[in-house]
Amino acid sequence: MADQKPTVDPEVPFAKRIDPNKEDLTRDEFYFIRQVELAQWKKKSQQLRGRNIATGLAIGAIVMGIYGYTFYSVKQEKIMDELDEEAKVARMRGAKTSAN
């Protein structure tokens, strides 16, 4: 069934591109063209909206991941605290001079 090709009636004209500015079209034909264009635009906008939402969620997830990882890594960073404690202890043990 899938191998069968639809038969084309040679009497039926195939859709062709036209230039509305050059062709003499009636008001009804212009209206029909506008309706078809509007339907195509709505269909495309729905597809684009879905893609835009997916892209926005993906970018947001990446940003939140980086933000969360930054907080996590800074929270674990105790090197500066240890250095501050060592410096404090060294100041306390150091010899007292007139400059201190």
From TrEMBL:
Domain Cytochrome c oxidase assembly factor 3 mitochondrial coiled-coil positions: 40-86
Domain of life of the organism encoding this protein: Eukaryota
Localization per record: Mitochondrion membrane
Keyword Flavoprotein attached: no
GO cellular component annotations of the record: mitochondrial inner membrane
UniProt keyword terms in alphabetical order: Membrane, Mitochondrion, Mitochondrion inner membrane, Transmembrane, Transmembrane helix
Membrane spanning residue stretches: 52-72
Principal subcellular localisation of the protein: mitochondrion
Biological process according to GO: mitochondrial respiratory chain complex IV assembly
Membrane topology: Single-pass membrane protein
InterPro entries assigned to the protein according to its UniProt record, in alphabetical order: Coa3, Coa3_CC
Sequence similarity: Belongs to the COA3 family.
Subunit structure: Component of 250-400 kDa complexes called cytochrome oxidase assembly intermediates or COA complexes.
Function comment: Core component of the MITRAC (mitochondrial translation regulation assembly intermediate of cytochrome c oxidase complex) complex, that regulates cytochrome c oxidase assembly. MITRAC complexes regulate both translation of mitochondrial encoded components and assembly of nuclear-encoded components imported in mitochondrion. Required for efficient translation of MT-CO1 and mitochondrial respiratory chain complex IV assembly. Required for assembly of cytochrome c oxidase (complex IV).
Protein name, per record: Cytochrome c oxidase assembly factor 3
Species whose genome carries this gene: Hucho hucho (huchen)
